[in-house]
Each structure stands twice: as C-alpha cells, then as structure tokens.
C-alpha cells in the first residue's frame, strides 16, 4: 500500500501508517508546553526526598550551623529582570548646529552608545539644522538626556517608557517550546522509511523552523530595544535678524513677483472664460453661416 511506512526493530518489522506519524507530530507539538511543565514538576518531586534527608541531617547538627542554614533559606530571592523600551525626542535651539552635533555624537559614544542616523541641511541659505538618532545604554539614558537638553535653548522634549517584560518572557518560552518541537520532528524523520512520509515530515519541519526563526528575530529586536534607549535630537540654529527683516519688509522683487502672479492669474481666468464660451460661440457661428446661405438663395430666386 502507498499510505503505509515500515519501521524495522530488533524483533521484526512493524507497519506504521504515514497518518499516524503526522498525528504524532501534531500531538507532540500541542503537548510540548504541558510535557515541559510535567517534567519540571517531576524534577522537583524527585529532588524533594534528598532535600528532606538533608534537612533532617541539618536538624541533628550543631545549633549555630542550623541557624545559618535557616538564614540562607529565608533569604529573599532576587527580583525578576524588568525589560523596558525607552525613547525620547528633543528639539534644541543652538548657536552652531555643527558643533552641537559633534558634541551630541561624542556624548553618545562616551556613554557606550552610537549614532544610528544623522542628517544636516541648510535652511534658506542662512542657517543649519541637524537631525540625529542616538542609541545609548539604558543606565546612561537619563544622564545623556540631561546633557543634550542643556546644549542650548530647549524648544520641546518628550519621553516614553514601555514595559515589555511579559513579551520578552513569552517570546523566550515560545522559542524553547518551538525548539523542542523541531527536535521531535527530526526524530520522527529518522524513523520514517517511506518517501511520502519523509516529504510530509520535511514540510512540517520547514514550517516549524520558519516559526522558530521568526521568534528568534523578535527576540533579537526586543533585546536591542531594551538594551539601548533611542533619543531623537533636532538641532536648529536661530533665525538671523537680517533674514527676519527681509521677511517682514517686502521689496521691489516681492512687488514684481506679486504683479507677475496677478498677471498670470488674470490670463488663467481669461483662458477659462474663453474655454467655457467656446461651445456656445461655435454653435452661434454655424447658425449665422446657415442664415447667410439661406438669405442668398432667397435673393437669387427673387431676381
């Protein structure tokens, strides 16, 4: 039959359908998390007897040693690690954007961070602006933020913190379960002998490996964002007095530009009016031509 696979053992040959192998894969995948939890409970149970014996032996020991052991057991466990994504945006007015940008780069690098992105451009040909995205370690985040805020006149500042501890723990757990699932599928592939079974299991293995790679990418992204905080910095030079005066007082070129704009606007409206009247003018011209032709014919007949 085409739907069966043969597995050889030490006692003989036993037939196992391909559907049974696939069902075993799916069942083992669903029970992965439960089996991990059961194994953990079993390990704790097997370790309980030696622990009780150790406690009994400790009870027979000298009093100072027993008191020291109780003190060790009563110590508060270390709190679980907290994973937080921290971001901030700053807009600072500075006298020299280039120097301020160099200072920001040095501040981030001295703190163990890096410059992820930097752009500088000139506005109106009179002043420079710089945009930087800095990545700094979490423990240096507050200090770097204070340093950058004091680089000039603070225009705006926003900051945010997002706790992703649950997401990190969940991702780590899913990765462990997925790795165990991939290992189980590999073991089933080693037992499969028929080509159809191997092809089916390879497809299942590819799907689970793709899920595992996706989880690993998510884990790497979370690690990067929780290890390094992100600070977006905009450095802007103040507008010069001459530029401000030019903007406030219109000159000859401004008047010429305004007149040209008005002239072009008038031509545009005239063109629109002619375009709107063109159909009516065409019909009127045709009617006038017909009227003249009829009039000439009547005059010729009268003669």
Kindly describe this structure.
It is a single chain. This protein has helices spanning 18-30, 32-60, 63-73, 97-110, 141-149, 165-191, 195-227, 241-248, 252-302, and strands at 4-8, 13-17, 84-93, 114-123, 127-137, 153-163, 228-236. It is built from nine helices and seven strands, in the order E-E-H-H-H-E-H-E-E-H-E-H-H-E-H-H. The strands form two sheets. It has a five-stranded mixed β-sheet. Among the domains are: 4-33 and 166-226, Methane Monooxygenase Hydroxylase, Chain G, domain 1 (Up-down Bundle), CATH 1.20.58; 84-164 and 227-241, Alpha-Beta Plaits, CATH 3.30.70. Mean pLDDT is 78; it is low at 1-16 and 31-66. The chain is 64% helix and 20% strand. The chain is flat. With 303 residues, it is of the alpha+beta class. The longest helix has 51 residues, at 252-302. It starts with a strand and ends with a helix. Strand 4 (114-123) and strand 5 (127-137) form a beta hairpin.
Topology of this structure?
Blueprint: E1 4-8, E2 13-17, H1 18-30, H2 32-60, H3 63-73, E3 84-93, H4 97-110, E4 114-123, E5 127-137, H5 141-149, E6 153-163, H6 165-191, H7 195-227, E7 228-236, H8 241-248, H9 252-302
Parallel strand pairs: 3-7
Antiparallel strand pairs: 1-2, 3-6, 4-5, 5-7
Concise overview:
By secondary structure, the chain is an alpha+beta fold.
Output the structural class. alpha+beta
Beta-strand percent range: 15-25%
| Elements, N to C (H/E) | EEHHHEHEEHEHHEHH
Number of helices: 9
Please give the share of residues in helix: 55-70%
**Looking at the structure, what is the overall shape?**
flat
Average pLDDT metric:
78
- Largest sheet geometry: 5 strands, mixed
Q: Provide the CATH top-level class of the domain at 84-164 and 227-241.
A: Alpha Beta
Q: Which segments are poorly predicted (pLDDT under 50) over 5 or more consecutive residues?
A: 1-16, 31-66
End-to-end separation: 112 Å
């Amino acid at each position: 039959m085409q739907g069966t696979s043969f597995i050889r053992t030490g006692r003989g040959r036993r037939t196992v359908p391909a559907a049974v192998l696939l069902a075993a894969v799916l069942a083992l995948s669903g029970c992965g998390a439960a089996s991990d939890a059961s194994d953990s409970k079993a390990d704790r149970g097997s370790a309980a007897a030696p622990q009780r014996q150790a406690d009994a032996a400790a009870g027979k020991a000298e009093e100072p040693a027993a008191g020291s052991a109780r003190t060790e057991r009563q110590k508060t466990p270390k709190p679980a690690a907290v994973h937080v994504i921290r971001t901030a945006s700053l807009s600072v007015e500075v006298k020299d954007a280039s120097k301020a940008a160099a200072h920001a780069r040095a501040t981030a690098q001295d703190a163990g961070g890096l410059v992820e992105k930097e752009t500088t451009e000139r506005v109106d040909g009179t002043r420079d602006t710089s945009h930087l995205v800095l990545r700094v370690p979490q423990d240096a985040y507050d200090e770097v933020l204070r340093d950058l805020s004091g680089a000039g006149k603070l225009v705006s500042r926003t900051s945010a913190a997002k706790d992703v501890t649950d997401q990190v723990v969940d991702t780590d757990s899913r990765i462990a379960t997925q790795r165990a699932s991939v290992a189980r599928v590999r073991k089933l592939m080693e037992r499969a002998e028929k080509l159809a079974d191997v092809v089916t299991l390879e497809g299942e293995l590819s799907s689970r490996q793709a899920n595992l790679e996706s989880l690993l990418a998510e884990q790497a992204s979370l690690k990067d964002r929780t290890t390094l905080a992100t600070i977006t910095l905009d450095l802007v030079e103040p507008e010069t007095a001459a530029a401000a005066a030019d903007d406030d007082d219109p000159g000859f070129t401004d008047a010429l530009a305004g007149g040209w704009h008005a002239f072009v606007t008038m031509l545009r409206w005239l063109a629109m009016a002619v375009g709107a009247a063109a159909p009516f003018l065409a019909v009127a011209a045709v009617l006038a031509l017909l009227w003249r032709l009829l009039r000439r014919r009547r005059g010729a007949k009268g003669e």
